[in-house]
Design brief:
Strand content: under 5%
Distance between the termini: 23 Å
Order of helices and strands: HHHH
Shape: elongated
Largest sheet: none
Mean pLDDT: 88
Number of helices: 4
Helix content: over 70%
Length: 149
Amino acid sequence: MAEPRPAQAPAASPALLSAVARLRRILMIATGALIAAQSLWALVGPVARPAASLAVAALATAAMLSSIWLILGRMVRSGPAVMTGWVGGGYIARIAILVVALLGGRALGLDVRMIGVGLIAAILVGMLAETIVLSRARLLTVDPGAGER
């Protein structure tokens, strides 16, 4: 008797893969712009321990925007069966980055206002970029092979 084959994830559509690549480029540019704004704030504004605050804020911003791209890329490649798991895991990862950066910054005596504003901006920019890129992707609204079972 033949053993049943494990279900394999369907191949990701080329449109989704190109959308993920576009999102990565946009998020890399956004990361640079947000870190530049944080650097300007650390130089000009009243910031407690500016170098350390900037380092934590920049790392947290880069981690937040990278997590958006990484999780979306994995979600696209894994298929629709585990999509909700990737979405839920993505939100948990973003909350964890936010909590670690803010609580760690507070424990180290850093300017948590700069870290928090940077993370909020990163979340908003990431969500906006993700929404725009995915809404512009040319995707089928109906799976043509879904009815043949």
